[in-house]
């Protein structure tokens, strides 16, 4: 089939899904309630379904009252049993795939179940929806006249059973339909390589002569790849190599600190940027408008949503505070709780979001429930940090490669403060001036931080350290966390990461 014809057919097919998306946008709460009923009905004869008597749950209030909210630690034993071959524990269909958590906050890896239903009705459906929304917003899109350059993780075989584990991206790549594989580069073999540095070279070798029309991957690692592509080819811009790139689908970390660097790579002639929000536990939201910073919450992927206000009122416990989608409010931080078609029941994923629209439901990712700084009552979220550091960098005409921040605790009569370790592409001429600007922008973004900083009431001026080139890369390498979905933790309430980075010798 001629490539332009294939592009036209694919575009027509993808646009047909828009009507279904508009349906859940119009009837969001009805779609969510029906989904919950179906999940309970399908799982009624599982071990957990029998334990909590799913058959007699008639409405959301019954569900809320009967099932506990869980963390990974709460369901660890169930997951280990499933990984070792037991089935029908929390989901009726056999589960053979487990997404290995890429987070750096825990030494112990998490293994999140991925059912065939989750692959088909959540992750792959989301992949098609991502394209549907893009084509719907860009009538003249020619993405399918070339290939998508993708960055994935690695796959490993677990023990001698039929279960597999690896990065979620690797599981998805390993199970892609043939048509999706044909329209992607590099090959599956290269995409699933484990060793990052040799994988980087293999990706470049395979992709350099392809007609790449789109990119997909985590911004921090895509940036490294594209910089290496320019170095290898001795070209000035990415458009000199792949002139037909029209869109970059990104997620995993905030794009804001990296946007200026991508702009330079494309010689200020940017492609479209489309953000997605997915995790090992599921695919949650997609940017549905050009040049937008909020994401449409996808409500028909087999995921039922609940939300816990963050921070909680001291007099309110978590169970009482949790609410369904129909009760959320604008511009308030919520921790997400999900029930899924992979057998996660009222599971806290650790992310926080803020609703920017209630009709339809659109969100912004604001951070992690464990990745924030509240050592002095300042409640500094990742969203605040990303905005402030980006503004400070722009003001001083510098570029940020990576950063992390945490507290310096009070000692004697000395007040506490925040310590920032920042890797610049080119450091500012005056680091004290940068620290001052960062402090000012943080005050603008967060009133609690501003109050604690007023006349150095509870926190002193932040301390900014310039990291030597490659510090964060070497730190991730020491943890065997190069590439894929791995990322540097932005904010922390303790000094674990800061002290580890200090040991690498800044």
Give the gist of this structure.
With 506 residues, the chain is of the alpha/beta class. 37% of the residues lie in helices and 21% in strands. It has two domains: 1-307 and 320-354, ANL, N-terminal domain (Rossmann fold), CATH 3.40.50; 382-503, GMP Synthetase, Chain A, domain 3 (2-Layer Sandwich), CATH 3.30.300.
List the defining traits of the structure above:
GMP Synthetase, Chain A, domain 3; globular; 4-stranded mixed beta sheet; 19 helices; 506 residues; 12-stranded mixed beta sheet; 2 domains; Rossmann fold; 19 strands; alpha/beta
Furnish the topology, listing elements before pairings:
Layout: H1 3-15, H2 18-26, H3 28-42, H4 47-51, H5 60-66, H6 72-83, E1 97-100, E2 111-114, H7 116-137, E3 147-150, E4 155-157, E5 164-166, H8 168-174, H9 178-182, E6 184-185, H10 188-191, H11 196-207, E7 212-217, H12 219-233, E8 247-250, H13 259-265, E9 272-279, E10 282-286, E11 295-297, E12 303-309, H14 318-321, E13 323-324, E14 333-340, E15 347-358, E16 361-368, H15 382-395, E17 400-408, E18 417-424, H16 431-445, H17 447-453, E19 463-466, H18 471-478, H19 496-503
Parallel strand pairs: 1-5, 3-6, 3-7, 7-8, 8-9, 18-19
Antiparallel strand pairs: 1-2, 4-5, 9-10, 10-11, 11-16, 12-13, 12-14, 14-15, 15-16, 17-18
Helix pairs in contact: 1-7, 2-3, 15-16, 16-17
Description:
By secondary structure, the protein is of the alpha/beta class. It folds into two domains: 1-307 and 320-354, Rossmann fold (3-Layer(aba) Sandwich); 382-503, GMP Synthetase, Chain A, domain 3. Helices cover 37% and strands 21% of the residues. The protein has 19 helices and 19 strands. It has helices at 3-15, 18-26, 28-42, 47-51, 60-66, 72-83, 116-137, 168-174, 178-182, 188-191, 196-207, 219-233, 259-265, 318-321, 382-395, 431-445, 447-453, 471-478, 496-503; strands at 97-100, 111-114, 147-150, 155-157, 164-166, 184-185, 212-217, 247-250, 272-279, 282-286, 295-297, 303-309, 323-324, 333-340, 347-358, 361-368, 400-408, 417-424, 463-466. Strands 6-3-7-8-9-10-11-16-15-14-12-13 form a twelve-stranded mixed β-sheet, with helices on both faces. Helix 16 (431-445) packs across helix 17. It is globular, with a radius of gyration of 23 Å. The protein starts with a helix and ends with a helix. The model is unreliable at 102-107 (pLDDT under 50).
């Amino acid at each position: 089939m001629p490539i332009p014809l294939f592009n036209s057919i694919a575009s027509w097919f993808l646009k047909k899904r828009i009507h279904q998306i508009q349906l859940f946008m119009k009837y969001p709460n009805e779609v969510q309630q029906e989904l919950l009923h179906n999940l309970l009905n399908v799982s009624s004869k599982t071990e957990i379904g029998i334990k909590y008597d799913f058959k007699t749950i008639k409405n959301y209030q019954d569900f809320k009252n009967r099932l506990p909210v869980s963390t990974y630690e709460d369901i660890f034993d169930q997951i280990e049993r499933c990984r070792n071959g037991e089935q029908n524990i929390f989901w009726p269909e056999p589960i053979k795939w487990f997404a290995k958590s890429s987070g750096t906050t825990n030494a112990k890896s998490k293994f999140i179940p991925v059912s065939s239903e989750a692959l088909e009705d959540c992750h792959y459906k989301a992949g098609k929806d991502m394209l549907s929304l893009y084509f719907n917003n860009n009538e003249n899109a020619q993405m399918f006249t070339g290939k998508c350059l993708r960055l994935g993780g690695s796959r490993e075989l677990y023990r001698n059973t039929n279960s597999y584990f690896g990065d979620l991206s690797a599981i998805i790549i390993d199970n892609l339909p043939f048509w999706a594989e044909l329209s992607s580069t590099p090959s599956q073999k290269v995409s699933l390589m484990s060793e990052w540095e040799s994988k980087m070279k293999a990706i470049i070798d395979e992709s350099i002569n392809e007609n790449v029309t789109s990119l997909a991957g985590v911004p921090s690692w895509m940036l490294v790849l594209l910089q290496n592509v320019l170095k290898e080819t001795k070209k000035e811009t990415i458009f000199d190599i792949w002139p037909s790139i029209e869109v970059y689908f990104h997620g995993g970390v905030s794009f804001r600190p990296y946007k200026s660097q991508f702009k330079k790579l494309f010689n200020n002639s940017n492609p479209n940027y489309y953000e997605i929000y997915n995790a090992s536990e599921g695919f949650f939201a997609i940017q549905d408008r050009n040049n937008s910073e909020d994401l449409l919450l996808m409500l028909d992927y087999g995921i039922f949503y609940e939300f816990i206000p963050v921070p909680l009122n001291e007099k309110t416990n978590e169970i009482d505070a949790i609410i369904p989608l129909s009760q959320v409010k604008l511009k308030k931080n919520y921790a997400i709780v999900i029930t899924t078609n992979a057998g996660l029941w009222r599971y806290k994923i650790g992310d926080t979001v803020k609703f920017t629209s209630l009709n339809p439901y659109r969100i912004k990712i604001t951070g992690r429930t464990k990745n924030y700084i509240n050592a002095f009552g300042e409640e500094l979220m990742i969203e605040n940090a990303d905005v402030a550091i980006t503004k400070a960098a722009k003001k001083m005409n510098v570029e940020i490669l990576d950063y992390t921040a945490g507290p310096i605790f009070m000692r004697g009569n000395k007040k506490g403060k925040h310590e920032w370790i920042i890797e610049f592409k080119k450091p500012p001429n005056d680091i004290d001036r940068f620290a001052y600007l960062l402090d000012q922008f943080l005050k603008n973004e967060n009133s609690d931080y501003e109050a604690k900083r007023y006349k150095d009431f509870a926190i002193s001026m932040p301390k900014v350290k310039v990291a030597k080139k490659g510090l964060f890369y070497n730190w991730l390498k020491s943890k065997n966390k190069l590439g894929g979905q791995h990322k540097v933790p932005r904010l922390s309430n303790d000094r674990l990461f800061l002290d580890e980075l200090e040991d690498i010798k800044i």
